[in-house]
Each structure stands twice: as structure tokens, then as C-alpha cells.
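Review form for a predicted model. The reviewer records the input and the model, then writes brief findings.
Reviewer: anonymous (R2)
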Amino acid sequence: MKVTRCRAKTRMPHSARIALTCIGAIVAGMGIALVCSAVAYCQPMPIPQIRVGVDTADSPSEVAGVLQIIALLTILSLAPAILLMATSFTRIVIVLSFARNAMGTQQVPPNQVLIGLALFVTLFVMMPVFSQVNEEALKPYMAGRMSQEEAMDRGVAPIRSFMLKQTREKDLAVFVDLAGLPQPGGPDDIPTYVIMPAFMVSELKTAFQMGFVIFIPFLVIDMLVASVLMSMGMMMLPPVLISLPFKILMFVLVDGWGLVVKSLVESVAS
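Model under review:
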């Protein structure tokens, strides 16, 4: 009986509920009216329209300018492939990956760090070639003292010389034979499209040779740790788990990254 009385005292009267409902309806109506009035007085926002069309050129120079822009965009889209094919980036990034795998640290350093280091080392190695291209081709062309065809020929010449210097004669002969070309009398008789794949194959071969040399000391550490564990009867303990700290310690003590980068720079510069 006491609980029933308490509930009866806290119950809202019917008239109060009707009043609150009316107040809520009035507030909602006023809000809708304000929104409708704001929408009515708002000015429509103009939507921009983009048009793409082709018009007739007034002179041949306009056509030449458009073609130059298209060629520039094409070169920019092919810039990563040119960086891979015509520079020492392939050798550097493969050797750095071999060094990481030899230590057994699959994700340390991460791929972003390795690729960034390879890019900066490539820029350091190729800077003399890029400076020569800039001085002999780009600057005269931008100053208007040289035609586009002549600038292209002079700009490609230093890059061709660099690739020929790093390419083995055997690899070059293979691609000359595959292209069905006659025996060249000199480097100038070899087309650039033949030099590029031969250069890539030579870079891959050199990178794998350097990677084999890098793997040898780490392989010795793995064999020593495995033999010690077998002599102690620890057959179930993975040797890689024990040898990893020793390999990292040895690599740090001999300044491994510095030696690897120094060997890469000297191999390209030699």
C-alpha cells in the first residue's frame, strides 16, 4: 500500500502532459518555419563547369608546344622506369636487400628505408653524369642555343657512356645478336635500346655476386652456432634464434652498412 501511494504522488497529471506536448509541437513548427524561410531566401550556389575541347591551331608553333608538353608528361610517367634501367639503382637496392636477408632480419630495416637509402646513394653516384647532362644539354636548350633534337643527343651521350662502362661485353654481344644487328664497329654503332637491357642484366649479375660475398660471414656464424647447439644436445632450439644477436653484433662492430655502401659506390665508380 505504501509503494502504491508513492507512485501515485510522482505520476504527472494529464493536463501537464498535454501542455508539454503542445509546447513541443509549437517549437518544432517554429523550427520548420525558420528552415523554410532560410531556404527560400538562399541564393543557389553556382556549380563550375569544366570543358575539354580541341580547337584549330593558328600556327605550327602552337602544335609544337602541345607536342612538347605531351612528350614531357610521357617522360615524367616513365621516370621510375628510366631510373631503374639507366642508373645503378638496381644494383644498390638488391645488394642492400641481400645484406638485410643475410642478417636474418626480414623487416628491419623496412623496405621504405632501404629504397630511400638506395635512391640517395644512386643520386650520389650518378651526380657527375647528371651534372654533365645539365651542363651540355639542359642549360643550352633552356637558353635557346640548341634545338630539341641536339639537346636529346647530347643528353643521352653521358648516360650511354655510363651504361657501357658498367656493361659486360658478353651481355652486350648477346643482345646485339638477339636484335639481329651487324657487328658494331664501336660504341656509337650500338643503339640505346640494346644497351639498356644488357646493362640491366650486367647489374643483376654484379648485384648477385656482391650478395654472395655478403652472405659468407653470416653463413659461417650460423654454422658455428648450429654445431655448438648440436654438441650440447639442444636439438629442438632453432640455431637462427641464437645466431641472430651475434650476426647483428658483428655487423654493427664492423660498421656493416658503411662497408656495404662504400663497396657499392666504389664498384660503380671504378
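Findings: DSSP finds eleven helices and no strands in the chain.
Further findings: The two ends are 105 Å apart (CA to CA).
Recommendation: see findings above.
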